[in-house]
Design goal:
Layout: H1 2-5, H2 7-17, E1 23-27, E2 44-45, E3 52-55, H3 65-68, E4 72-74, H4 81-89, E5 99-102, H5 109-117, E6 123-127, H6 131-144, E7 149-152, E8 166-172, H7 186-190, H8 193-210, E9 214-224, H9 233-244, E10 245-248, E11 263-265, E12 275-282, H10 290-304, H11 307-318, E13 321-322, H12 329-334, E14 341-346, E15 349-354, H13 358-365, E16 370-373, E17 375-381, E18 384-387, H14 389-393, E19 403-406, H15 409-416, E20 430-436, E21 439-446, E22 451-453
Parallel strand pairs: 5-6, 5-8, 6-7, 8-9, 19-20
Antiparallel strand pairs: 1-3, 1-4, 2-3, 7-16, 9-12, 10-12, 11-12, 13-14, 14-15, 15-17, 17-18, 20-21, 21-22
Helix pairs in contact: 4-5, 8-9
């Protein structure tokens, strides 16, 4: 790093790494206004992300009901630079909808940011190869509330049978984690030269495996949380030269202390952790050299023979999906603009997915493992339909279809611990939408003498600490 930065700059970096990490959050403005969150008062905005704020201190986020309601996301400020890049290429209200993929997405920071930025009507695939992390990813995306999302748990090469379907791929590649040294001291012990070598090879393999699914002229955003050029600039140059791409400028403001084309964040120069990001545009087939063409063709042929085998795997995701059964009329009333969704039954649960993309969802199920898609609406419980937690947190929830009950802070913490809460005597019997400061937290079933807590047990607050507020 001394050779890379020069002695003076490296000294500043080493000092910064021994300093304190800033705490930052990003607001979900489709759910809440900035003024409704106490943390944003007198807080400094993140220069490159209009929804981001640096907090003056780190609160106990676990005990904030608004976090569990999906009103904001705790995200490292440097990673929010993705917002600046997406804003240059896509206009939320004035662009054609696109299909995007966040390839290495857990725990969900870049996916939630991307969903807030993409043109209206777009679809996002959010993928994570590790099963447990994929479940965490699904939880965070359900909380964020956008129905146009498919969460998957697959390897990059598993997407190849889908062909070139993506207008945008974000690849926050697994790396040696040098940029996390300040935030996570344990990452220092895990670092080694051998691991750097392993990482840059894996990064190129991932890019190579996913490349055939990217449309011509589409964008590939590559990032890491590390400093060394082997995993950063050299890998980007390898992608450009071997896969056929043009490296684009990220156009950072000069005042942000960032470089231009391949953008590096150093905590000694900008307020955030170590981070690297670069944007590439895939060249059209006519522009690619013969070697790159041969590569893409060979992958298409190699994977076409696997497609039938993948179908067998994908059918396990189906679990008796049946969209021909008559949907109970009350379900249609539970979601806004229900005519824009296809409602189908899977085992005992009814789901809603944007009709525009139902064919693509079915194709995806044939080749990748789908963890969550669209909205889980209701589960059959005896003769009744029990509304799902996914519905409660969805931006497409029709709140007028349910009795709502506002609870205070202490009740909200009890609810998030899956404890029993007391409802007012005049609350109607049946399923009740619980809100905190006007924002849905989930459902309870009011049976008169008590209210059964329906908050997902796997999401509950497990800490025995009792906050005071």
């Amino acid at each position: 790093m001394t050779n890379y930065l020069g002695k003076e700059e490296y000294t500043k970096l080493a000092e910064a790494i021994n300093g304190q990490s800033p705490t930052s959050i990003r607001i979900n403005r489709d759910k809440i206004s900035d003024e409704e969150i106490d943390y944003t008062k007198d807080a400094e905005k993140v220069s490159w992300c209009e929804n981001g704020y640096y907090l003056n201190e780190r609160p106990q986020f676990t005990f904030d009901p608004l976090l569990h309601a999906g009103c904001y996301y705790v995200q490292e400020a440097s990673s929010m630079f993705l917002s600046h890049i997406l804003k240059q290429h896509f206009q939320k209200n004035n662009s054609t909808p696109i299909v995007a993929l966040d390839l290495c997405a857990a725990p969900g920071g870049k996916s939630t940011l991307t969903m807030s930025m993409l043109p209206k009507g777009s679809l996002l695939f959010a993928n994570e190869v590790m099963r447990q992390r994929a479940n965490i990813l699904a939880e965070n995306l359900i909380k964020w509330g956008y129905p146009n999302c498919i969460v998957t748990n697959s390897f990059a090469k598993d997407f190849q049978p889908l062909g070139p379907i993506f207008d945008l791929i974000i690849c926050d590649a697994p790396c040696s984690g040098e940029g996390m040294f300040r935030k996570d001291p344990a990452s220092i012990d895990e670092w080694s030269l051998d691991n750097v070598e392993t990482c840059w090879k894996r990064q190129r393999e991932i890019a190579q495996d996913i490349w055939p699914t990217l449309k011509d002229d589409a964008l590939f955003i590559y990032s890491t949380c590390t400093y060394n050029p082997h995993e950063d600039e050299e890998t980007v140059e390898w992608i450009a030269d071997n896969l056929g791409a043009e490296i684009l400028s990220c156009n950072p403001n000069k005042e942000w202390g960032l470089t231009d084309k391949n953008t590096h964040f150093f905590p000694s120069k900008s307020r955030g952790e170590g981070f690297f990001i670069s944007v590439l545009r895939k060249k059209t087939r006519e522009c690619q050299d013969a070697e790159s063409d041969d590569y893409n063709n060979s992958y298409t042929l190699a994977n076409s023979s696997k497609k039938n085998k993948k179908k067998d795997k994908g059918s396990k995701n189906g679990n008796n999906r049946n969209s021909t059964k008559k949907t109970p009329q009350e379900i249609n009333a539970w979601i806004k603009d229900s005519n824009q969704f296809t409602i189908y039954q899977e085992d005992e649960t009814f789901h809603a997915f944007p009709t525009t993309y139902t064919d693509l969802l079915e194709q995806a199920r044939q080749t990748v493992r789908v963890v969550h898609a669209g909205i889980d609406i209701a589960t059959i419980k005896g003769k009744n339909l029990q509304p799902c937690h996914s519905l409660a947190l969805s931006n497409s929830l029709n709140r007028e279809a349910f009795v709502t009950h506002e609870i205070d802070y202490n009740q909200a913490i009890a609810y998030l611990r899956t404890e029993a809460i007391q409802l007012d005597a005049d609350v109607k019997v049946g399923y009740v939408l619980i809100t905190f400061k006007g924002h849905p937290l989930g459902f309870v079933k009011n049976i008169g003498s008590r209210a059964n807590n329906l908050y997902p047990s796997e999401w509950k607050i497990k800490s025995t600490y009792t906050p005071h507020k």
